[in-house]
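SEQUENCE-TO-STRUCTURE ENTRY
===========================

Backbone structure tokens: a row of integers, each naming the local backbone shape at its residue.

Task: work out the structure tokens from the sequence, keeping to the layout shown below.
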Amino acid sequence: MMTTACWIGLGAIVLFFILALMGVKICYAMLASGVAGLIFINGINGAISVTSTALFSMVSSYDYAVLPMFILMATIITETGMGTSLYSSCRTWLGQLPGGLCIATIIACAVFAAVTAFPWASIMAVGAIALPEMARYKYDKKMALGSIAAGSELGDLIPPSSMFIVYGMMTGTSIGTLLISGIMPGLLMAGLYVIVILIWCKVKPNAGPRSTKTSAKEKLMALKDVGALLVVILFVMGGILLGLCTPTEAGALGAALAFVIACFQKKMSFKIFKQILISGGSMIGMIYIIIASAMIMKQMIALSGLPFTISHAVMNMHLPNILLIIVILIVYIILGMFVDCMSMVLLTVGIFLPIVQDCGFSAIWFGVILVRMGDIGGLTPPMGMTAFFLKGLAKEPLVDVFKGVIPFLIADFVGLGLLVAFPAICEWLPSVLGYAIT
């Protein structure tokens, strides 16, 4: 039975969507809705107490330092141009295949994701180079746009993933376990995207012409150009996988290593260093404001008792567990059409995670599924954020971007079905490495 507090919590969520649809920034919409709900539930003094405690606990916690470390590493790599040769190297190895430049784009995005943690970084670093190259070889425009959009989303799965870090913060789940759990799903999705490209070129041979054949010597020389990135990946991911360092320490090591390599390659200057601090600081500040607002919203929803009421009501329906999961996924598909991945995670995880765990699934598995749903939402009309970002970069009609991502969306749903049917895809690698699955 819905109590008064539950109705207040539900009203605050409705207020959030109203403000968001009116164009209010997501962080301010969450902050206003959360504080308003807290005032009605606990009074002004209670709202001030909860708000101040949530903010202080976030900025003073060592665990929250992991995100700034990876953001700093990503900013150093992007601002110094260390990743500019990545696509060229992948093109040298894969360009001779049908649709080889698109396949190179997928692989380059996957590798770049392993050092940047953000999808937008892949679009900027890889897409800006790949689009003119594919246009030069007269690639199908829609396939080119679709491969960049889909490949960029791998940044949310392949560690270090900013979304896994945020999810871990919100749920108290081991960030190290979450990062490792994304490796196999990330490789699975990269493989499915490559299959889409090969099928596309099989059906329409002119969609992805083969590029100039390269020799074995040229392939080996191409690896030299990406040696710096591979070193950073090796140290960061190797440290986490082998348990030699925590994710926070790995992020700090990666940032320091990227800085040293940039200096050694003479890509670092005072002007670039200043830009790194400004860009990195702005990104960190923006994400911290969003997370802080979400923490207040989460506290309000928890105090309202709404998650427990919904969970109790849903479980009393005695529906098959798989049907409950499908209903939750449908809700996320609809949400993903209108809000970005991070906002969707922050707003809903407190409501759906108890239901998922009652169904016998782990928080680790749900983290991967939730991130996947956010990625699918980023490619889905009418408000797919990744599609809009790519439109701005490519200066192409939005309808062409959405048409290009449709085949890759089909691959996304195939991959999603496999993850739901076989949770071990997410949980196997962490368990082999000795991480607890909760």
Notes: The two ends are 30 Å apart (CA to CA).
